[in-house]
Amino acid sequence: MRLHILGICGTFMGGIAALARELGHTVEGSDANVYPPMSTQLEQLGIALKQGFKAEHLQPAPELVVVGNALSRGNPAIEHMLDARLRYVSGPQWLGETLLAQRRVLAVAGTHGKTTTTSLLAWILESQQLAPGFLVGGVPANFGVSARAGAGPDFVIEADEYDTAFFDKRSKFVHYRPSIAILNNLEYDHADIFPDIAAIQRQFHHLVRTVPGNGRLIVNAEDARLAEVLGQGCWTPVESFGIDAGDWRARLTAADGSAFIVSHKGREFGEARWALSGRHNVMNALAALAAAHAAGVDIERALAALSEFRNVARRMELVGEAGGVRVYDDFAHHPTAIATTLAGLRAKVGSARILVGMEPRSNSMRMGAHADELAPSLRDADAVVFLKRAELSWDATRVVAALAGRGRTAAGVDELVAALRAEARAGDHVVFMSNGGFENAPRRFLAALG
User: Fold this and answer.
1) What share of the chain is helix, strand, coil (3-state, %, to 5)?
2) Binding residue per annotation — 116?
3) Is residue 246 marked as binding?
4) pLDDT at 167 > cutoff 70
5) 317-449 is a CATH 3.90.190.20 domain
6) Which of 51, 179, 267, 376 is a Cys-bridge partner for 215, taking CB atoms 3.0 to 4.6 Å apart?
7) What is the pLDDT of residue 6?
């Protein structure tokens, strides 16, 4: 079948494209921004890419159009698709019906940590020669690709609560029908589509409703909002995890979270030592271990796999070092993620200075939904430069003011890089935080250092 994927360079839709190609379909696609690393990955798979959303990109007509959720009415490609009565489907529905219906699905949901936890779980299964399929919202270093069909019975998927498509406003994850589902955490996010936290909880409960009675829910014991979700009704056995509460627990043996002892209902299984740090990543590991155990993996062997885990690109990825300054690229989309990431780095580097270059880019960030929480989330940063683009709809200067001399704004990436370059000195750690491309700012800064 010849498929055309609209929005193909997003991490999710790019994964759909890779899976469709692996299943033997002829795949092409278009996007507003065709750029690496996803464009490179897709071109290496033999997938033709087209820049922009034009009606002629859908001529001659493909047999099926797979529509990404970034596209809406008024888009030229969408209008042509509808006028020409082309057959179309959302990415999540295509995935659920084409691939997931035949597999045991392990889904990872939550406001934070989905990508890392999904990658962890896939790697644990892979380390036991179970050859899982997976779809991750990033590129796990252990695999080098964001998606594969896999030869084994299991499929691990990052289960996003964002809406499915312009014609299907349910969360993506309702299409996946998991046997094992992780509920990592739940906070207010996606202010562009959810009016309040209750609306997100409602979608999470829709996911809970789809998990069978002979499946398993792996739930953060420290999250009161998830407890409220389960309080709306639960028909599946639940196992909880947490550092301070839960069936699965971790006792930190290194302050930065790089080593911890895992126990289940009071029984200790052993110590994990790995390259990651931060309390949030220890929680991610507990969730992945509990889900792997529910899938039948021996927990001691799963623990051993953590030592060989390499995190996803852009999750506190060390880009390089020059002049004694270490430069990181981090996918930051929410104040809680910013705070926990910087707290983990602070625990690791001690009193060394941490400088942050930040692009408020997610829809919620650009709308100002998290503006009041931004300054507190940066408490571990010694200096912050905000990218204040002209289209930013709220005044970032009040966030800067709340940083009490530790912050400033920059109107463009060149100015931001120059400001950080002037501030940085040997021994510093410079973190670039954005859930977008950030105009390649981390590598531009590294080049400026060199």
Assistant:
1) 35, 25, 40
2) yes
3) no
4) yes
5) yes
6) 179
7) 98
